[in-house]
Amino acid sequence: MDRQINCIVVDDEAIAREILEDYLSRIPGVKLVASCKSALDAFQIITGTEVNLVFLDINMPGLSGLSFARAVSRDIKVIFTTAYREYAVDGFDLQAVDYLLKPISFERLLQSIRKYVSELGPPSDANAKEETDDNGEYLFVRADRKMVRIDFRELLYIESIGDYLQFHMKTGKVVSRETMTTIEAKLPQSDFIRIHRSFIVAKRAINCYTTELVEVNKVELPIGRSYKEQVMKVLETG
After folding, report:
1. pLDDT score for 169
2. Which end of the chain has fewer CB within 10 Å, C or N?
């Protein structure tokens, strides 16, 4: 992400809140400010805290999500999360960023976050400079019972081994219980390429390649058949 997104979750169902809390904790640049079981609780949060984005259930006791969305500032964007398809028109009439139907997958939520970011446009020069100075190019993964920082500049390639991923760094290896799909969504597509169902490679780390493999740090990695056409297209165009 190019900027930090302060968000809150509003849903009267505890399980629904827990799922979104877990998803949001995996996304770099997204900060969960609060998780509320009612729209009234959410109002108290937004009056005293900077909030950019609200994940909002619709059918809640007391004050509905639609009523909440009508009342909040237009500067606060809304992504509706509901089990009811019939409210979609009302949601988009309120200029919601997106409308997610339960059960919500991580990939679908991530798509909504990206849509929100794209609608914001590029960050200001000041924010862009701040991100450049900090590089802003990293993610955290759980390894050895702690969260370990993976700097993209140090990452050579990622290997899937069973239920685990092995992050091959310039300085060593980090093993984490993650999925390729989750990690691939967090990587900048301009810098990394999926070459095989079990391998993601940093483009800058590729020493040489053929139609069958790429070489990274003197290690030959296979190119999967279903990935070959796209990999060749990317590598040949630079």
Report:
1. 95
2. C
